[in-house]
Amino acid sequence: MDLNNLTIKKFHKGLLGKQFSAFEIAKAFFDYIEEKDSEIGAYLQLTKDLALLRANKVDIELAEGKKMEILTGVPLAIKDNILIENEPATAASKILANYRASYDAIVIKKLKKNNAVFLGKTNLDEFAMGSSTENSAFKITRNPIDLERVPGGSSGGSAAAVAADMAVAALGSDTGGSIRQPASFCGVVGLKPTYGAVSRFGLIAMASSLDQIGPIAKTVEDAAILFKEISGRDKLDSTSRDIEYGDELLNPKLENVRKLRIGIPKEYFIEGLDKQVSEAINLAIDSLKSLKIEFKEISLPHTKHALSCYYIIMPAEVSANLARFDGIRYGQTSDVNGKMSLKDIYLKTRGEGFGEEVKRRIILGTFVLSSGYYDAYYAKAQKVRQLIKQDFDEAFAEIDVILTPVSPTAAFKIGEKIDDPLKMYLGDIFTIPANLADLPAVSIPVKKTGGLPIGFQLIGKPFREADILGIGQFYEKL
Ligand code: GLN
Known about the structure:
11 strands, globular
């Protein structure tokens, strides 16, 4: 069975055409993962029993002549900060090493309704904090294209699983680039939806005003399919919205896509941008010009403040969200004999359970929120966030979509940046603004011959995923 380049679309056709059964495919994936994942390390745990049970159910329903939804039987990988009932959910942290989810995330509920199959939970930077997946408490993940390099992060396991054909598609989460940057590094497609397009209920929170769950897939079309199925209003997430994503999401029309004007922000083509990246971005622009799409230079003047703004707001929210891991309510406790004082339980459990990067951000976050510093840092960062949003609002009066690089470099070497947090943070410069401004953004691999994969980013107006995915789908067909 050829799992290479198996897309959602191809799987669906094959299943309906009885070229294979859902069970056979799931089994083939597990055999392949067993062989391949020892060198890559994309998965933290496989959910084999659940997957085979669900695949079997699909085959029975198919034989009974039940209607098969587009995701029915599709083998997916799920980032390990998204809850699947009764399965482990570690967020790649020691503090949750023995935790099992007691309920399904809403995205999982939706996928279960569709009869999708979950192969396993994928590796990430601890609590999604990082850009290389090297911050996982359990293991590193290697880039399938070059095993000496990182797959990006924090959704590095999901991106690597899809790139290495160890899943048809995957879910990741994106707070400051964690879907788009690993997608770019691994040569796959990654979509961060508009804030509020997808329910966050059942996602282990990092920074709640920035987090979104989104798809990682082999094609833009697959990303659109998966996005459509997981989006929508959910009463358990009051920030989620009901948007009717119509037919244009999956069947964009060229005449409509041609009407979209693309802006190129000059602030994104800066010193420090790798030559291979700028060359790749120019290739993508040239291809899109051949579709007769209009381009225009624009300015997003507050871009230079995005990184510092993010690295204040994000840790502030991290410090609040991670307060719940206290050795009493969730997961691991250091109080093995039940004799420790409350304070010692907190200190010891958190001291032993969290990794270095997580601690760094909790300390930063409590600092910027503390009395005396709140106004100088946190309140100011909130104002800057507004200015960054305004930049986009003003730009979107003239253009419809913004094209930028995803990351200043292609995948870097394992170990290259791990001892220098600032250097690691700087790499997030192009992905962070879309989170701060709540906007949808997709990373699409540039078509080129040779070299490491490099993605370009399309940022859209709020809830206009159809625009960026529409352009992407035509780019793919070129
Ligand atoms: N790399 C960014 C960070 O370290 C983004 C993480 C994310 O999107 N979850 O915060």
